[in-house]
From TrEMBL:
Protein name (record): DUF853 family protein
Annotated Pfam families: HerA_C
Composition skew (Gly residues), residue ranges: 10-28
Ranges of Low complexity composition bias in the record: 476-493
Region (Disordered): 1-31, 475-502
Length: 537
């Protein structure tokens, strides 16, 4: 590179005026500088792609060099990172719009309450026109088809619930803040309930089972569950009681949300954007982050293997991802890693959204092939350490990445994605396009009308409390114990105690014989469980 050519380390951060680079972002000779041309060539894909924005070189936006993500690579997962206020939410909105336009459904978690605007056309203005001119974008205000959900109906949205038995012991342990030993014990309690046919639909069902196991009548049952002590069961019971007293019971129950609803397209062929409204539960981060993982785990279990596809079946944006990994058990982290690794072959792409890549465990980060890194701050020694760690996660770049990542402006990012042949593209400083939908929330009245007008509202609006473990155990308390029928003489010899299965121990108890009357054909049933101990459909 000659001395007259721009140097990579000279990358600027602010957004200059629309025509500041001669209208095409070129050198006086009519061409991009050699290193910039090399970067631009890495994004010249032949197939369908999402347009992120224009290359920035020497502090100037170059609309002739478009930075893109191949549609076929969206199931290779990704990371959107950056400090607060750098534009992560608008990046989610931009990508969601383009996925929807190409017929790909999208899931977004709206933690701050400002993503409902995806459903409404954006407002034209000087800033939008300026940004469009800088990046070579033909901007038109456009709204996209949306469904709005709320956890347990808390907030404005179609109520989204899961049954306790479907949620499983590993995920529930995360929200109850149980340690590893207690998590394993909770797994044994689920196993016990599964085999006895005690449906755990809501928290009172699980509390009833644990209460029974710690009662004088249930102590013999407790002894039959290896590794579960009365003391540990008591801790779990107290955690459940506290959790329920904090108003968490609404998130669990029926009707349970069918995650296949996330895969729908609108009547015009555009992908449906499913927005989970979380402002009303911002103070319950452990709960909503773990609930997002349940959605993903349930999709993983339900979807068939499809291998590589022309476009994803769904792209799932996992906002505030650091909350998911905070204080996570080893089993929990292993299950996340396995889910992310395998769900790609089911046509689902997952983007984790957080402040720095170090928020995501290395085994997960290694699977995120597409990166949109907004600016990082380096005010403290810890910030500087995080910055250096972030730089190490990028492929070799023509830029001084430490300087670049601290000088990016709002709405700018360092981008590297997987090309159509699966190889990483060169790192590109990018000025991102402006979303075409409303950059902010819609009016509360419009949001409420959209929720109540949905075809799903009637299906999920009202909670249902069917007969389950709570009712069955209460009925068993008041029913007289059934007298055991005498065994035939030929079968009176008891099997050795150590050879008895858990089912035999449970069925042999007097309390269970009483309980069996109300259980019918469900006696002896065991639910098949998969990752996170969640129920297989």
């Amino acid at each position: 590179m000659s001395d007259s050519e721009p140097k990579a380390g000279d990358q600027g951060g602010g957004s200059g005026p629309s025509g500041s680079d001669g209208g095409a972002g070129l050198t006086p000779g009519g061409e991009l500088p050699a290193e910039a041309r090399e970067i631009a060539a890495g994004y010249a894909f032949t197939g369908p792609a999402l347009d992120l924005g224009a290359l920035v070189w020497d502090g100037t936006s170059r609309p002739g060099a478009q930075i893109r993500i191949p549609l076929t690579m969206l199931n290779r997962h990704g990371l959107v990172a950056g400090a607060t206020g750098t534009g992560k939410t608008k990046t989610l909105q931009l990508v969601a719009e383009q996925l929807s336009a190409q017929g790909v459904p999208v899931f977004l978690a709206d933690v701050k309450g400002d993503l409902s605007g995806v459903s409404a056309p954006g407002q034209d203005g000087d800033r939008v026109r300026e940004r469009a001119g800088q990046v070579g974008q033909e901007w038109t205000g456009t709204g996209f088809p949306c469904e709005f959900y709320a956890l347990g109906g808390i907030g404005t949205g179609i109520p989204l619930r899961a049954t306790v038995t479907s949620f499983g012991p590993v995920l529930l342990s995360k929200v109850l803040r149980l340690n590893q030993t207690q998590e394993q014990s909770l797994g044994l309690i689920f196993h016990y309930a599964d085999q006895k046919g005690l449906e755990l639909y809501d928290l009172k069902d699980l509390r009833a089972v644990v209460t029974f196991l710690t009662s004088p009548e249930g102590k013999s049952e407790l002894k039959g569950i290896g590794g579960l002590s009365a003391a540990t069961a008591g801790v779990i019971l107290r955690s459940l009681t506290t959790f329920e007293a904090q108003g968490m019971g609404d998130f669990f129950g029926e009707p349970e949300y069918d995650t296949s609803e996330l895969l729908r397209t609108a009547s015009d062929g555009r992908g449906l954007v499913s927005v989970l409204e979380l402002p009303a539960v911002q103070d319950k981060p452990q709960l909503f982050s773990t609930f997002l993982m349940w959605l993903l785990a349930d999709l993983f279990q339900a979807l068939p293997e499809v291998g590589d596809v022309e476009k994803p079946k769904l792209v799932f944006f996992f906002d505030e991802a650091h909350l998911l990994f905070k204080d996570a058990s080893k089993a929990f982290l292993e299950s996340i890693t396995q889910t992310v690794r395998l769900i790609r072959s089911k046509g689902v792409g997952v983007f984790f959204v957080t402040q720095t890549p170090k928020d995501v465990p290395g085994d997960v980060l290694a699977q995120l092939g597409n990166r949109v890194q907004h600016a990082l701050r380096a005010y403290t020694p810890d910030d500087q350490k995080a910055l250096r760690a972030t730089v190490k996660t990028f492929p070799n770049a023509a830029y001084d990445l430490e300087e670049l990542l601290t000088s990016l402006g709002t709405g700018e990012a360092a981008v590297t994605v997987l090309s159509e042949n699966g190889a990483p593209t060169p790192v590109a400083a990018t000025r991102l396009r402006a979303p075409q939908s409303l950059m902010g929330p819609v009016a509360a009245e419009a949001l409420d009308a959209a929720v109540r007008g949905s075809s799903l509202y009637g299906r999920y609006a009202d909670a249902v409390d069917r007969e389950s473990a709570y009712e069955k155990l209460r009925a068993a308390e008041s029913a007289p114990a059934a007298a055991p029928a005498p065994a035939p003489a030929s079968s009176r010899r008891a099997a050795p105690k150590e050879d008895e299965s858990l089912v035999e121990q449970v069925v042999g108890s007097g309390v269970f014989k009483s309980l069996a009357r109300s259980m019918g054909t469900q006696l002896g049933r065991e639910i098949s469980r998969s990752l996170f101990g969640t129920r297989r459909r």
